[in-house]
Specification:
146 residues, mainly alpha, Recoverin, domain 1, two-stranded antiparallel ribbon, 2 strands
Length: 146
Amino acid sequence: MASYPYRQGCPGAAGQAPGAPPDMFDKTKSGRIDVYGFSALWKFIQQWKNLFQQYDRDRSGSISYTELQQALSQMGYNLSPQFTQLLVSRYCPRSANPAMQLDRFIQVCTQLQVLTEAFREKDTAVQGNIRLSFEDFVTMTASRML
């Protein structure tokens, strides 16, 4: 079981502002972001890109399973090897040595951030565990992912 990360989101030190998907920058919920929202979004994309490049040591434009695990760990996520393998199988092209490209890495980071924020709302005791009904779980995730 993965432990819940309280330092998470974007690369860097604990307490650094977490990343967010584009709709989180839409303060009016109009489907648009203003120049300030775009600027903030761009900053997070650049941070994820810099982290990706840090782990793309061979400059191939992709990162391996091991590099992905290390990048997620640096972001504060303590995820199991099985979960990282699930991400690789879901987001990487099928090959003998699957590797994740930058666009997919940003997609994974964004989705992890959305789910982390949803979890954090329910984890009021900040213990890394919550108890949910199935409907609460579906509502919590669907309201953020759809």
